[in-house]
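pinning this so it doesn't scroll away 📌
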Amino acid sequence: MTGRYNVPGVEVRALMAFFTISLLALPAARAEAAAPPPSVAHVGGTIRGSEARVRFRLENAFSPEMVEALKSGIEISFRIRVEVQRVHSNWFDVTIGEVKDTHSIRYDVLSRVYNLRHGAGVEVIPDIREALQRMSRFEVTVPVTGEAARGKAYRAGVRVRLDRAGLSDPLRSIVFFSSVWDVETEWAYGPLQAP
């Protein structure tokens, strides 16, 4: 019985087509794998009285897919955790203040502006580059217990992750299986200048 699929060489052609497609997809997979992971950088600030002001930057947080989703009107939120610690030599560091905050960005399709929400404030920004840059730079005020002591060492620790709870149900299921949306940084530390 000879059918059209029993012709010699059909399997070889099918395998060659699969192999060719696989080779074409390989550079894209390598480019995605080569993208640097998101990270927190340039942590620093000051501590005076009973509050610390911590500044830091979020790097490599927005993949091209996230930028396209943002342009489509999908809100992207980051949960930020900042800890202020009193540094002790030869002993454990003590956390003296902690803040958890959410920063979000959303494109308003009708007015064609980006709304940045952080704390109680909202910024309206017309340009996507500026909006992404503002979404990547942070200054957070952390209340601390006690007064900052002169000559003592303090540091701030920062960790950021994508807030998936604010995403729509269909997008949340896609995000679950996609590493492109896997934004979570390691802890990053930096010194705080005391009075």
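📌 and the second one:
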Amino acid sequence: MKTKFILFAITLFSVAFSAHAQTEKAQVLAKSKQVVGALKNKNVKTLASYVHPTKGVRFSPYGSIDTEKDLTFRRKDVLKLYALPAYVWGQADGSGDDIKLNFAGYYKKFVYDKDFARAPEVGYNRIVKQGNTIVNLTEAYPKAKFVEYHFPGTRKYDGMDWRSLRLVFEKSGKNWYLVGISHDQWTI
């Protein structure tokens, strides 16, 4: 009798945990869909509403996230992204030159260089594709969930023209908030 009760309790816990994980996944995917739509439409007001209220959102031009140097913006600053001056967003792969751009330039090259709202592959909490850059997303955001929007490379360029956009979310209270926007592509 005691063994049956323990097995019943374990089964009940497993079902409840699985349901929680599915609900969590659905919440993150729904938020991600809204965020990718805001990015597509360059709607900073909607984008800002999803940004973490205390951590802000970090922009990373490549899959390797630099928690010290990648630029982070608070909600109020996200509302003004297109009016802000040029910043150094990191170093360009290959040359090491500074990526010095205003947000419009950065957006065009390192955020929405493909129509990610129509990406043919979407991964939840998994890296769909990576090149030779170390992708440290789970180390940089240990409590986060992420959604990757991916365009595979073409035959013309031997697959090296692939692109990914990863949207990273952390839970605060009962809500999931955007804490990272990480772009990735084939690098030298």
